Amino acid sequence: MKKLLVLSFLVASLSSSYAELTASHTAAVEKLLTVMETEKVLAKSLASGLKAGLGVSEDQIKALPKEQQDKFNGAMEKVMAAVMAEMSWEKLKPGLVEAYGKNFTEKEALEVTAMMESPAGKLYVSKQAAMAADVAKITQERMKELTPKIMQIMQSEMQK
Question: Among 119, 143, 107, which residue's Cα sits nearest to residue 29?
């Protein structure tokens, strides 16, 4: 009988990628996400990441004729609206709560929340979105230098 109980427990735990969070664990994770201003940081990161992902710099856009700049900016607005609709907080929040709940126990989530509510934690949170944008710019610049090397490697390997 014991073996059957253990086996059924294992099957139940393997049937979902995450254990179901208790109400108090979910509340602790949601508070952590709120204190860390995750919704705001995510929106800013998505916007920065999208521009960086296109590999188009502000200088390149400014070099275009005015009409092309306007078309590009209009297209970017539509792309951003589509991305933000699919990556909205309402759509991402359940997965984020699950992921944070998987990686932080309820106690850990409460402890990190307390830390983030301290003056130093608030300072970090206030600068987090700007830092994410700066990191996106840095990686974009590095990718500009790396892309020709990647293309060279790919061409070399494809010609073998």
Answer: 107
CB neighbours of 80 closer than 8 A, spacing ≥ 6?
47, 50
Q: DSSP string covering 110-125, please?
A: HHHHHHHTSHHHHHHH
Most confident of 19-28, 103-112, 137-146: 103-112
Q: Give the tokens for residue 100.
A: 């944070």
Q: How many CB atoms lie within 10 A of CB 10?
A: 10
Inform me whether the pLDDT recorded for 110 exceeds 70. yes
Q: What would the mean pLDDT of 6-34 be, rounded to a whole number?
A: 70
CB atoms within 10 A of CB 132: 17
Residue with tokens 């949601």: 30
26 phi and psi angles, rounded to 5 deg: -60, -45
Q: Is 30 left (phi over 0), alpha (psi -120 to 50) or beta?
A: alpha
Q: From CA 46, how far away is CA 133, in angstroms rounded?
A: 9
The DSSP 8-state label assigned to residue 64 in this structure reads: S
Domain map (residue ranges) of the chain? 19-158
